[in-house]
Structures are given as C-alpha cells and as structure tokens.
C-alpha cells in the first residue's frame, strides 16, 4: 500500500500587504478532495502540520459536504503528526493543499524544507495545490540553492489572486519564478495540473481532484 503525507498549514491568519491581519487557514475542498481521492484508491494518508498543531479551516471554504467530511476525520485533524518528527523514508509522496495559510507558515518552515528536499532527492512524488506551492519556497538546500529551480510547475496565479480581491503580502507565482522555477498557468479558475517528473502541481481549488488523481498515476 502506498503512503502519502498530506502537509496542512497550521496558520489561522495572514498579514496582508497593508499590515492588517486576515483570518485564514486551509481550504476545505483541497484537503477533503485530496484525502478522499487518495483513500478511495486504497492509499494510506497521514496528516502533518507544523508543531503538530490542529489546523484551522478557512470558514469561507466550508460547504455542508466538506464540513461533513472534515468531521469524519476530525480525530486526525485534532492530533496531526509533527513535521519535525516525520521521516521522508516512511512515505511514497508528499502533498501540500492550499488556502492562504501556507503563505504564512509552510513557506518558511525548515522542517518542511528538509522533507521536501529529501522527497525530491529520492525521486518521490512531491505534490502541491493552489497556495500549497508556497510551501515549496522552504525547500532550500544546504548550499543555498532552491530545490525546484528549473522545474515546471503551477500555483494560484497572480490573475486569480487579483480577481479574488485579497491584498496578499507576496505573489506565490512571482516568488517561485524569482527562485528559478518555471510557472505555467492555465486560464483563471480552470482545472490545471502541471507535471514535471516527480513534481505534481495544481493551480487552484478547481484542480483538487485532478491533482490527487495525477498523484495516484505517479504512484502506480
């Protein structure tokens, strides 16, 4: 049985460009569909957060369906694994769902960075969705180089961010490009998945199911 580590942001707020604090967290659809698609295919899924903190769902993302599924895995969300305790050798893939939360914590998390480098060096699947690719920013090697420089990927686009109307503190797409990654974007709000070897990325919430399915394909 394949094992996938789903790394969820533990942030509950994001400091915006004007210095104000905006409540945030993980995007329900992205966690729900990622976990559901993988488990329905027989994959073992473990959930981890920075410090093992209980993650906060972004209230704007909740529907009755997603709330019900989150309730069904509440025991796991209440006591996730600590990123610092995780060994990449125990898993076949890692997946980072989004919501604006990863911009606040995963992007700067040294434990996540260590894991991502280990997964990538071993040729294991590294997947990220929507704002989840902000977590890739933490993957800096000991020599200071960005682990995903030169790699094709996608993330929540600047155009989608503009249409969403939130004055985020930085552009995920822009930061990845600055570090040498090669962002490829589809139309706003389209299901867009980019695969570059073992790296699988989805552009937005609409890409949640297709991203998880592509992870399954990469695991097979």
TrEMBL record:
Question: Which CDD domains does the record cross-reference, listed alphabetically?
Answer: GATase1_Hsp31_like
> What SUPFAM superfamilies does the entry give?
Class I glutamine amidotransferase-like
An example Gene Ontology CC term for this record? cytoplasm
Query: Is Nucleus given among the entry's keywords?
Result: no
Return one Gene Ontology term, BP aspect: methylglyoxal catabolic process to D-lactate via S-lactoyl-glutathione
**InterPro entries assigned:** Class_I_gatase-like, DJ-1/PfpI, Prot/Nucl_acid_deglycase
Q: Which domain of life is it from?
A: Bacteria
**Protein name in the entry:** Putative intracellular protease/amidase
């Amino acid at each position: 049985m394949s094992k996938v580590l789903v790394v969820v942001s533990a942030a509950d707020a994001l400091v915006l460009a004007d210095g104000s604090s905006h409540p945030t967290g993980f995007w329900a659809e992205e966690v729900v569909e990622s976990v559901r698609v993988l488990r329905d295919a027989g994959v073992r899924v473990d959930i981890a957060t920075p410090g093992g903190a209980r993650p906060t769902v972004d209230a704007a993302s909740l529907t009755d369906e997603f709330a019900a599924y989150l309730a069904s895995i509440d025991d796991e969300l209440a006591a996730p694994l600590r990123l610092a305790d995780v060994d990449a050798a125990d898993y076949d893939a890692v997946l980072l769902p989004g919501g604006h939360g990863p911009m606040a914590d995963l992007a700067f998390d040294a434990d996540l960075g260590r894991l991502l480098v280990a997964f990538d060096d071993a040729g294991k699947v590294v997947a990220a969705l929507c704002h989840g690719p902000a977590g890739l920013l933490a993957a800096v090697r000991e020599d200071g180089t960005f682990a995903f420089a030169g790699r094709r990927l996608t993330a929540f686009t600047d155009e989608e961010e503009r249409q969403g109307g939130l004055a985020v503190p930085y552009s995920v797409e822009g930061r990845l490009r600055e570090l040498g990654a090669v962002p490829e974007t589809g139309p706003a709000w389209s299901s867009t998945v980019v695969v570059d070897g073992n790296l699988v990325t989805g552009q937005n919430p609409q890409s949640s199911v297709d991203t998880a399915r592509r992870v399954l394909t990469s695991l097979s």
